[in-house]
Each structure stands twice: as structure tokens, then as C-alpha cells.
Amino acid sequence: MLQSKSFVKKTKQGRITKIVREHYLRDDVYCGAVSCSACDAAAKRKLSADAATILVVDTNVVLHQIDLLENPAIEDVVCLSVVLDEVRNKNLAVFNRIKALCTNDARRFYVFANEQHRDTYVKDMVGESPNDRNDRAIRVAVRWYQSHLGESVKVLLITNDRDNKRKAIEEGLNAETVESYVRSLAQPGLLDLVVVPTNGDVNMEDAEDLRPSKKKVIYSEHKPMSEITSGLRCGIYHQGKLRVNRYNPFEAYVGSESIGDEIVIRGRSNMNRAFDGDIVAVELLPQDQWHESKSFIADDDEDDEEDVHLAPSSADDAPRNTSSTTVGSSAASVSSRPIGRVVGIIKRNWNSYCGSLEPMPMPAGSGGVAHALFVSKDRRIPKIRIHTRQLENLLNKRIVVAVDSWDVLSRYPSGHYVRTIGDIGDKETETEVVLIENDINTRPFSTQVLACLPPLPWTLSPDDLANPNRQDLRHVRVFSVDPPGCRDIDDALHCTLLPNGNFEVGVHIADVTNFVHPGTPLDEEAAQRGTSVYLVGQRIDMLPKPLTEDVCSLRADVERLAFSVIWEMTPHADIISTRYTKSVIKSCAAMSYVEAQARMDDSRLVDPLTVDLRNLNSLAKIMRQRRCDRGALTLASAEVKFEIDSETHDPLDIGIYQIREANQMIEEFMLAANVSVAEKILKHFPLCSLLRRHPSPTKEMLEPLLRTASSVGLNLDVSSSKALAESLDNATSDDPYFNKLIRILATRCMTQAVYFCSGDLSFSEYYHYGLAAPLYTHFTSPIRRYADVVVHRLLAAALDIAKLPPVFQDGPQLTGIADSTEMLRWQAEHQLNSTPTYISGQGQPTDTEARIVKVKANGFIVFVPKFGIEGPIYLTPKGDKGGDWVVDEVHQRVTKPGTNISYSVLQTVMIHMEVVEPQPHRPKLQLTLI
Fold first, then answer.
1. d(C-alpha 431, C-alpha 116), whole Å
2. Are 584 and 464 in contact (CB under 8 A)?
3. Measured between alpha carbons, how far is 560 from 587 in angstroms, rounded to an integer?
4. Angle formed by the axes of helices 521-529 and 786-798, to 10°?
5. Torsion sign, CA atoms 525, 530, 532, 536
6. Which of 122, 261, 289, 420 lies at 20 to 30 Å from 770 by C-alpha?
7. 603-626 in b/e burial notation, b at 16+ Cβ within 10 A?
8. pTM, whole model, 2 decimals?
């Protein structure tokens, strides 16, 4: 049966066109119930044979009650295609979660294509809204199911929409609210998962504390979207993403393109119920209110505590200037930075959060509803009010809570319990907390994903060798150099001396796209994960282990498929020619950095492999010097390495990660391969190449570095990356650690590099500041980074090996795929690999050396080289805002008047480190001066 659907669409040129599409209706769309005898016997069936009730959920139930639906107690659910389409349009994250339920063979969730079935398709009625039409379609599908399955099974519509429920009952259908149905299951714990509606459709128990003192208006009402849109157009309001200060949750920043600056938001009242990551509308305060705050270390009052943390490695995770980690205020000076307040939320960024309940006495009686405050591990998140019927089981546990609403009358947002992770303090529990907080997917790969893998054991096929687009390089002496114990080897090299005295140098990268095809469940899963995450003694893969550790890994003495960039280079590292090819290689050795370095350093070794290493290293040194001469920055970060117990996997010891020539050699050729591939794909696809840029730091970002350098008599030229590089090279003193410390401080002034689509920016904006490269991309790590998979597909299309997938026509989606998980991965790795975690786990106090990196009125911030962390040292009791100490901002010194006691920036001090617990369930590392 054929129907036609028509709608109007506005083109990019502004023209309005009418689109008419044919819509085929079928009889062979089956119900999915095992008990059904009417449907084709071969049809897929997921609804249980002994199910007494089959649930049909509406769109809002899926959108708002997804945590409940994911609970194993909820089964035999029909998800209509009209509902899934609406969910996909409104919230892609929820859509992916409901889709995972429907595709999981272990769960009884069935997708019924009601829009394609002859008996359940409904036509639009004149004057009917899209929402009313979809509600009617849902009721028609419920009626069909009840008629189709007969009286042996109850078909129940679950909806919190009062009007939809009323119409369903009037039409003789079974309909209940979410809360009513969950109560009928007689599992009180499930009621904790029910989201309290905020639209007034259904009367449910109010989770808010209704004491009179709580009823006053605390926050301003958010402006309606119509007023926000008008205000943005007129320049009254400014739009941007709210970024809460990681070290002071009462201060946030909104980057505004409309005024070309970052707007500072101070205090919960001015943040006006906005969460970190929300897209907000901001109104600037009058300029006479743009006051700087006086520079104090924050106290441990309620949510506000200045904590020990891993030293920031860029300006994207560090405060923008010296006033960014401060509390208090002073009207003595007027800031040049605009100050504003949030007037509306354009797009929410509410997620699930990990933490624990604030300790509280058990309420009298049992089985009743207790009101509790949830405290997130992420200090940027405010406390969340929840109601629970299982308080006794949740105290002293790490739990997951989701936010539902935040009323103007409530100091805190309201949310609901999702699940329990484990006991507070347990190592595995705390690890999972960090992974969840950073949205790192640790779920096992689904059967659909694993079905995409090639048959194992995998071996090279005759078709691979016969492929005219793949060159056989098995005769070439290829080898890899990686960190010790590396199993996911995605790069290898060769260096062959040519008869003319030049070198043939090849970078061979695992040919992941030969096994990960566009649009498959495996590809979609890799895109969703975005990257592998490397933790202390653990790796969370982007791709299934059979690929990462076997089929794609360029291990020694096995034949593997690769994508190769091959240069002819002179002995002076000048590139004569470049070619790109799919290849077959057989690595002769898989070395660690230490092993490769030992070979190069041992003058007794003259075997071909060692000679190749030395030749590569000679070329790499020239290439590195050439990059530095162009202005590439040699920065530093506080990277540490752990010694792990082989049985318990607990950290035993810690030390600074040592960079060897072998590390730098591999890095140099990976950079060169990425540059060459960037040039090739941009030549062929000037509008849709995925590239990577590193924006130049602004003067404001470099101000903390300049102030610190000036205080110790160091003059840094920051007019260009080359000038800064030369200044850093000349930054020396009698202190052997001085230069590295200055480079660490310079590193945190930099922005993060970002992916972009070549068609979105002008060529001058492609520049990579840190590498001093006009063009750059990521090609060399496709096993662990999805952006590289995208670039491999671009390069294959540029070589006419494969067609370009449709996603490359959508620039924002292209860069979104690459950028989506990069920062989350970085945060998770740095939190779990940070030494506060290590010291907390050991529980042993220790004394060590530290360097002062920032002075405050009541203390200073120190950097601890051995552990790669920084944190506060208090000179006065907490709560005493300065006392007798005086700060000299120019010379970055804090002095006690009448004495010769003073502390200056970059000064060495001895400190004591110890884990304390000033607040229940929130252990922290405390630093004190010895």
C-alpha cells in the first residue's frame, strides 16, 4: 500500500521547497511476541512467552525515565518507531541508550515499526499538532497490539501525559502513569529511579523540602527563549558554553564570540542554576561592578575547597588568570574582564553524576521516603536533593544520581537515584567513579559489534596480496618502538640506504579501516567511544581486543596490513619524494624505548637493525632541530610513571617519566607522517578534510607566565612561537630544575589543540602553534583514536582506493566525532593516573621537595616535581584572610612584616603530604609546610 508524505523545507539559499516522499505500508511487520501464533514463525521475537503484561511507552517516558527502563526489572517493552524517531530528534544520547536496549538480546525490548504497518499508520489531521498526531499514533498501536494478541496478554500504555492517558482510557485502552506501574511491581527500590515530572501533568509526591524557610525565591526565573533570541540579536545578551572553575566551583566563565572575550560569572546566584557545559545566555553587569577578587586560597567551607590536583597542562584546564581561583571580593580595583550573570539556559548539559550521600541520621520507622543530599565527586557540581526508600543501603556507598529539575525556590537541584557503584574507598569503585564522571564507556562490546570482526585466527589472504592497491613490503626490514609492554602496536618504521646515498624511510600504520567499515555497528561503537583510555595498569579500548592486540597490532614476526607513508630523504633529512600506499608488512622486531636506546648507545652493535635505528635517529635530530628553528615549542608536562605490583595491580612506587632519544625519534617521524598526510588529503578534499590546529595563546593567557618570569628577573619574548621557544631555551639558572619548571608553566598557558573541518576556516587559521606547522592532522594512531580512522578514509579516497562516506559532507558532525571524547579521555586519564590517587591508595604520609608557583594573601600554591601535582600551602589558619602576611604582586612574594620570613615564586620548600578527611567520604591530600 502506497501513501505520500509531504513537507516544506528551507534550502541553504533561503528558498522554500515542497518535498513529497512515497511512504510504503506493509502487512509483514510483526509484533515480536513469542506467544503470538498469527505472525510469521520465522519473525524475530523478543517479548516473553509468559509475559502477563506488555508495555508500550510514549516519548516522554523514554526521554525522562531512561534510567528506570535500563533496570532489569523492566522487561517486555514495545518501542514504537514513532517514539524512537521523536527521541532521536530531541536527545541523541537517550536515543543511543534506548537503541542499545532494543538491540541487546539479553533484554526484552522490541522495536515495532508502526509507521510502516498498514493497520497502525495514521494520517495527519487538519489542525492537529505533531505532538497530538504522535500521541494518537501511539494509542492506535496500543489498540492494534491488544486486538492482535487477544485477552491472554494485557497491553499497557505507560504515559505521564494526563491528556494522552485520559484519551486512552476513554478509548477502552489500559493506561497508567510511570509511578503507578512501578508501585504495582512491589519493588520499593525502583521508585527511587522514577523521575518526578515538572510539567504538572501528573500529581506525584514532591521531593522538595517544603519547610517555610525553603520557600523563598532564591534564583531569578530564566528568560523565555523568545526573549533570549531577541536579546542575542540586539546584543543585550551573549551566548556561550559555561565552564565552571575546576578549583573554585563558585566561579565560572562563558566564552563569548559576540564580545570576543570571556565573561566571568561569580557566585551561585549569578550562575542561576546553570551547570558546567550548559549553553547559556548571559547579561553583562554594569561596568562599575567588574571588580577583581582579592587573591586568597579558598577555604573548605561547604562546597568550596582548594584541593590538591594534578598540575594543569594547558590553559583549557587551568584558570585563565591569577584571579580565577579566588574567592572574596574587593572594590579597590576594576577588572578589565567583563562580569555577568546567567539569564537563561539555551541547552542543558545534565548528566549522571557519581558521589555519595551526605551523612545523616536514619529517619524514624522504616520503609518511608527519606530526603537526602547527594554530594558529587566533581566539585563543579552542586549538591543534588534526592528522595529514597533505601537510605540505609546507600549510606557509605558510591552511587550514581541524575538531575531532573532545579526550581527557583530550591537551593539545590532535584534528582533521582540511578544505581550503586560500590563501597566508598574501594579501589575498583573509585576507578569506576572517575570513568563514569568522564563518560568513558567501559561496557563490554555487544554481540552486534563483535559480529563485525573477521574470523579468528586471522591470516593474510591471497586476495590481500593480489590487491593492486596494496604493495607487498614483507621483504623490507620493518620494526616498531613503543612503551614497555605495549600490545596495541599501531606504528612501525623502516629505514633503507639507497644506492644514491639517500634513505628510503617508511612509516607504516595499522590498516584499521580494512576491518572497520563505515556505518557498521563496529564503526558506530568506535565513533561513540572516540578513543582508548590508558590508566595505571589498565586500558579501556576503543576497538575490541581481537583487533587492537592481534589482527591490527603490528607485532613482530607476523604478517599484517598497513597504510604506509614512504619518503626518499637525503642524509640531511630533506624530503625528495613522498608516496602513500596500502601495504603488507612483517615486522622483524617490536622493541621498547629502553631497548631501542640501548641498541643505539652500544657501540659494539653494528647489526642491520641497529644501523637502521641510528640512521633514523640521525635524521630525526635534524628534523627536530629544523622544527625548533621554525618556532616549534619544546614544552614540558608533569608526567610520572608508576611501578605496578604484578599480582594486585596496586602502584608500588612513582617517578618522573624519562624521555629518551628513542622517544623523540619516533615522535619526529610520526609528526612528519601526519604532516604529509594532511597535505595529501587537503589537496584532494579542500572543503572536508579533518585537520588539527593549535590556536596561538592570547596575551591574557600568557600573563601569569610573564608575571612569574619577571619576578625572577627573566624576560620572555612571547611575540611569536619562535621568540618564545628561544626565550625558553635561554631560561637558565643554577637550579637544574628551573628550566623545566618554566616550561611547565608555559605549557599551561596554551590552549588545547582542536580538530576542524578544512572548509570551515581560512588557510591562515590552520596553523599549529606548538608544532610551528602550517598544516597538521592525526593519522598515526587509528587503533586508539577515531579521528585517525576518519583520516585513513580520507587518504584512501584521495588515492582512489575507496569512496568517501557521506559523513564527510557534514563538517560539524565530522569535527564533533573527533572532539567529542578527547577532553573526557584526558580528564579521566589524568584523574586516575594522578598521584593524589596513588598517595590516597598508599595511605602513607611523606615528606618531599616542592616549588612555589603562585603566591596568595594567606599562603601559596606549590608544585611537587616528584609527584606531578600542585596544591595549597596555608600560612594562616583557614578562614583567616591574610592575617599578618603581605603580598608583593610585582615580585610574586609573600612576607610577614617585622620579620625576615618571606616566600617567593619558584622558591624551593620542604612539605609534608598526608591524606585527611575534613568532610565525610571526601578524602583529600593535604600539604603542609615543614
1. 45
2. yes
3. 8
4. 130
5. negative
6. 261
7. eeeeeeebbbbbbbbbbbebbbee
8. 0.77
Contacts (Cβ under 8 Å, ≥6 apart) of 465: 472, 584
Provide the total of helices (H) and of strands (E) in the chain, helices listed first. Answer: 25, 38
Q: What is the dihedral of CA 359, 360, 361, 365, to 10 degrees?
A: -120
Q: Up-side HSE of residue 424: CA atoms within 13 Å toward CB? A: 21
Give CA–CA dist 732/231, Å, rounded. 52
Give CA–CA dist 258/405, Å, rounded: 29
Q: Is 345 helix (H, G, I), strand (E, B) or coil?
A: strand
Cα torsion for 139, 145, 147, 151, to the nearest 10°?
-110
Q: What is the pLDDT of residues 629-686, one digit of tens each?
A: 888 887 665 554 544 444 544 444 445 556 789 999 999 999 999 999 999 999 999 9
* Highest mean pLDDT pick, 39-53, 197-211, 318-332, 830-844: 39-53
* Strand ranges in 657-733 using DSSP code E only, listed in sequence order: 690-693
* 674-729 tens-digit pLDDT: 999 999 999 999 988 999 999 888 887 888 888 888 888 888 888 888 888 888 88
Which residues make Cβ contacts (< 8 Å) with residue 130, sequence separation at least 6? none
C-alpha cell at 117: 504497518
* Residues 538, 539, 541: CA angle, nearest 5 degrees: 155
Closest CA to 314 of 842, 861, 750, 857: 750
Q: Rounded to whole angstroms, what are the CA distances from 868 to 655, 732, 770, 850, 905? A: 9, 21, 22, 10, 17
- For the chain, percent helix, then strand, then coil, each to nearest 5? 30, 25, 45
Taking the C-alpha atoms of residue 808 and residue 815, their distance in angstroms, rounded to an integer, is 10
Q: Which long-range contacts (CB under 8 A, 24 or more apart) does 452-460 make?
A: 452/516, 452/517, 452/520, 452/521, 452/522, 452/523, 453/515, 453/522, 453/544, 453/546, 453/547, 453/551, 454/515, 454/551, 456/546, 456/550, 456/551, 457/550, 458/550, 458/551, 459/559, 460/559, 460/561, 460/584
Residue 30 dihedral angles phi and psi, to the nearest 5° = -100, 165
C-alpha distances out from residue 698 to 261, 533, 706, Å: 11, 31, 12
- What is the structure's pLDDT at 797? 95
Backbone phi, psi, residue 281, to 5° = -105, 130
Question: 760 phi and psi, to 5 degrees?
Answer: -90, -20
What's the longest Cα–Cα distance across the chain? 95
